[in-house]
Amino acid sequence: MRLTHFNCTTCMIEVDARSFRLDRQLAVGLVAIALSVLALQLSSLFIFPQPNGLRWFGDETWLMSEAKSQITTGVVRYPLALGSTLEQSKGLVLSMTWLSSCLYGAPSALIPGDPIEIGRSVTAALGVLLCASLFVCARKLGASHSSAALAVLLLVCSRSFFYSSHSCRTDLLAGLIVLVTVTLLMLRAKQSTQPSGRWWLLFGAVIAFLSVSSSVHLLTLLLPVSTYFVWRLGALSRSRNVYFALAGSLAVFIILVSAYYVAIGNLTLFTPTSAGHSQFHDVLSSIPILRPFSRSVQVSNLVIRMKQIAIEAPQVYLIVPLLAVAMRSSRQRLLSPSSIAFPISIVICSWLFLEGSEVNYLVQILPLLLLAVAILFSRLTEHSPRIKYSLIVLLALSVGGLGVRDALPVRSTARNIDRSNERAIAQIGSAVAQTWRGKGKPRVCTEPTSLSRLSQISSIETMTDHFISFPTREEPLDSFILRHHIDYFVLYDSPTYPKNRQRDDPFYREVVRLGSLEATIIGTSGDVGRDHFCRSDWMDTLLLFRINYGGK
Fold this sequence. Notes:
mainly alpha
């Protein structure tokens, strides 16, 4: 009997060891596939999408300029946005972004070169860090090696990650911060000892800093889930701990407010002078929870979010069957107070109701959702290794294939667009040089499609058209042009532009009235409304207008 028992135990150990080795080998294969897809994606880092194009119309030059300005002068401002509120300051509420400014602004200030290429390189590095962090976080919270690696592959092969890792925006950084913060707090909640007062002081300081130092959206994503952990970790049972957390937060805000006051000389919360709405009002007006009783707003918001996930990261919907099985097999474990389901649900609700419905924001919660997929998948298949490995291989082949299918045509399409854009900007620069008869550099107001390359031509002075959205004062366009001495306008038009510019765009019509057309460049120079994943060879147009100043 003892010998038989010993033999059975030995067999079980051998089976477990074999299963463990197979799990790690499978994880290595999944990571290799993820790295291959990532390498394909990064081969188009500087050309897909076109700088300032597609989904962030002008954001990249804008954000890189602001980050560099904050690092070099302490003021968050956009020098190219002449005549707009962005040229001066964004106000205290949106000017505490020191973390993102250090990450993006410092390299731009120290390294000569294209600021967008520098910014995208930073984001790509953060993307690699996000993949590594997702694997580590999944392992720390109980997922197997193969399940954690599967989550990484699902992330890399999503279009949401593909887009966000090829931009100078901080959405991917926000996703990294949310993932790591929730994971660390979950690990702390599993410890048996109560946090000390010093820990709560540090907790308040770190959460306050992370909430405002890189993206205003982290304020709505981190605060609700952090409040949950304040309760979960027992701070409410001792008021002293709450005071420590508040003191840490207050200390950080005092430091940030003091830095703003030293740089600006005032404590204006929002844009100092504005004839209309400011950028903060734009952010505020897009939050669904501010119209809680509007059925159309709430239904539209939910439909938009579900469509975004279906297009950008359909992998997330794996969580639906996994949750259904989990509710049947281990409901108590899933719904227990110690489950990660609660903090993840809080973050999802924050994203749904406390943020606007921009598709760019999806990546802020995507890593956390895929973390849940990894944990659920690992727990539900831990006693069925054959099913587990079969499903992983099937998912890896299908998802990896989709990732490669997306990355390959994008590179070809983006290269053609980039070459066309380069030729178009060279022609515009040449046309300006041939027609300019004034003293000094001509001032050229341009739209986002041509902003990046035009701003690097040293013989002209480039400005943006933000004075339309964020004017410092209301005045006719001809008066504004005269006051700011604008010599040229570069306008973009295409069959997929959101509106018929000649018929519905007063700004476009006014520029046509005031100026003379000096150049028309037809090509594929922009990607607004263009589908990079399919054949897209329709023509768009860049127009150069010279403003007529009487006899000038």
